[in-house]
Amino acid sequence: MKQPKARPSQLRIIAGEWRSRRFSFTEEPGLRPTPDRVRETLFNWLSMHIEGARCLDLFAGSGALTLEALSRGAAQVLACDMSRDVVTTLRGHLQTLQCERGEVLQKDALNLLTGSPAAPFDLVFLDPPFHQDLLIPACTALETNGWLTPGAFIYTESETAPERLPYPANWRLHREKKAGQVWYSLWQRQAGE
Predict the structure, then answer these.
(1) Could you tell me the CA-to-CA distances from 22 to 59, 63, 93 in Å, in that order?
(2) Which residues does 183 contact at the CB level (< 8 Å), separation at least 6?
(3) Per-residue exposure over 31-40, b if at least 16 CB sit within 10 Å of its own CB, e if not
(4) Is CB count within 10 Å lower at the N or C end of the chain?
(5) How many Cβ atoms from other residues are within 10 Å of residue 151's Cβ?
(6) How far apart are CA 180 and CA 169, in angstroms?
(7) Distance between CA 74 and CA 96 in Å, rounded?
(8) How far apart are CA 153 and CA 171, in angstroms?
(9) For 1-15, 25-39, 92-106, 145-159, which range has the lowest pLDDT when averaged over its residues?
(10) Are 107 and 78 in contact (CB under 8 A)?
(11) Are 168 and 139 in contact (CB under 8 A)?
(12) What pTM did the predictor assign?
C-alpha cells in the first residue's frame, strides 16, 4: 500500500505588513515551528525593539520568526539553516513578498558563528533542534565573536529550564515562559560587563 505524501505544513504571519498571509513549509526531522501564541507573546515583548532592528535567525526552520520580524519592520534579517529545502522554501517566500531585507544562507549555524559579522545584530533568534547540544555553543560564539550589539536581545527556545544552563554571564533574563516541555526565554546583553 502506498504511503500518502506528506502535506506541507502552514504558518501564518500574525501582524505587521503581511498580517494573516499564510505560507507552506516542508516538515523536517527536529523542526518545531514556534507556535502562533508563542510568537505573538515574543513579538509583544519586542514591540519597542523590532522596528529597524538588524536580526539574525539561526536554525531558521519554517522561517516563521524571520517572516514575522520582517513583517513587523525589521530593517534586515539574516536567516541560516543547513537544509536545502528549508533555504529554498524561505527564499521563495521572500521572493513572493518582494522583500529584499531578508537573506537566507544554507550553512551550519555554528560554523557561521566562527567568523565575524559585517556588522553586529540587535536581535537574535535561537531555536536549535533539541537534544543536540547546539544552544549554549551558539550563545557562546555569539558573545565572543562580535555578533551582538551592546544591548542586543537574544530569544532562545530550550528543553531545559534557563537557570540550569550556562548562558553568558553578561546576559540578563528579560522574560520567560514555558509551554508544554519548551522554555521560551528573552535575554538582553548587558554592555560593559
Answers:
(1) 20, 12, 10
(2) 156, 157, 158, 159, 160, 161, 162, 176, 177
(3) bebbeeebbe
(4) N
(5) 11
(6) 27
(7) 18
(8) 9
(9) 1-15
(10) no
(11) yes
(12) 0.88
- Evaluate whether the domain defined by 9-189 bears CATH number 2.60.40.1120: no
pLDDT by residue (tens digit) across 43-102? 999 999 999 999 999 999 888 899 999 999 999 999 999 989 889 989 999 999 999 999
Q: What is the pLDDT of residues 126-181, one digit of tens each?
A: 999 888 899 999 999 999 999 999 999 999 999 888 889 999 999 999 999 998 88
Question: CA 1, CA 154: separation in Å to the nearest integer?
Answer: 47
> What 3-state class would DSSP assign to 5?
coil
d(Cα 121, Cα 62) in Å, to the nearest integer? 21
The cell numbers describing 17, all together, are 505588513
Read off φ and ψ for residue 57, nearest 5 degrees: -115, 95
Which amino acid type is present at position 109?
A: A
pLDDT at 5 over 60: no
